[in-house]
Amino acid sequence: MTENSLPTLADAVGVGPDDLTSVVGAGGKKSLIYRLARALDGVVTSTVRIPIFDDEVEAMAVTDDPETAVAARRTRPLGVVPERDRPDRYRGYDPTTVAAIGRATEDVVMVKADGARSRWLKAPGDHEPKIPDSSDLVCPVASVRVVGEPLDDEHVHRPHLVSEITGTDLGDPLSAWDVAAVLASDAGGLKAVPETARVVPILNMVDGVSQRETADRIAGWVREHPRVDRVVATRLVAADPVVDIY
Question: Is the pLDDT assigned to residue 136 strictly greater than 70?
Answer without folding.
Answer: yes
